[in-house]
Amino acid sequence: MSAQTIDRGLGRSPDVERAAARLAQPHARAALAVKRLADVVLALAMLVALVPLFLAVLLLLGFAGEGMIERRQRLGRDGRTLTLVRFRALPGGAVGRWLERAGARELPLLLTVLRGRMSFVGPRPVAPGGDYTGPRRLLAPGLIGPDSDSADAYVEQWTLRSDARLLAGRRAAHHSVSNSSS
């Protein structure tokens, strides 16, 4: 996140101002750069490793005779519109259930992370018209992250360590994008 993005007054409340000032400090900006680098490296590695699964999902969806992609509008950093692209619901049967549990619907979101519109960890994306005030709008939304009630506190206290804890204990500490955007 650039200082220009952080410093751009958004008609912000005092809690947003405090969080923006904290994120604009040199050590926080350096940590945000490390976070972005980690997002790019991890997304690239996962995309390369998961190409066979990506192709399998495309084949399964193609045989099911449905459109393969669904798009949902959400709000991203600074309230900008973000399009979440996911595979449509997978066909039934053992393979379809396994792919659904494996999170195969979310594979296209890795491209959104690679583009910088999302992060692996961050506040959950909010549907247009939803409550999108407070510090949560200062960071890119995440594939995993705190629920809506604690998103502002997450941003106000954000550190690389907190992201690592969320990634390490993600089953207990998050809701996935698919749960928040269904």
Spell out the blueprint of helices and strands.
Layout: H1 3-7, H2 14-24, H3 26-49, H4 51-64, E1 69-75, E2 81-87, H5 93-101, H6 109-115, E3 119-121, E4 142-144, H7 151-156, H8 160-168, H9 170-173, H10 177-180
Parallel strand pairs: 3-4
Antiparallel strand pairs: 1-2
Structure description:
The chain is mainly alpha-helical. It has one domain. Helix content is 51%, strand content 11%. It contains 10 helices and 4 strands, in the order H-H-H-H-E-E-H-H-E-E-H-H-H-H. The strands form 2 sheets. It has a two-stranded antiparallel ribbon. Helix 3 (26-49) packs antiparallel against helix 6. The chain starts with a helix and ends with a helix. Mean pLDDT is 80; it is low at 1-10 and 171-182.
Summarize, please:
By secondary structure, the protein is mainly α. It has ten helices and four strands.
Average the pLDDT over all residues and give the rounded result.
80
Q: State the separation between the terminal residues, measured CA to CA.
A: 28 Å
Give the amount of beta strand, in percent: 5-15%
Count, helices: 10
Largest beta sheet: what is the strand line-up? 1-2
Helix content: 40-55%
- The number of strands is 4
Summing up helix and strand content along with how strands pair, one would put the structural category as: mainly alpha
Reading the helices and strands in chain order gives HHHHEEHHEEHHHH
What does the largest sheet look like? 2 strands, antiparallel
Q: How many domains is the backbone divided into?
A: 1
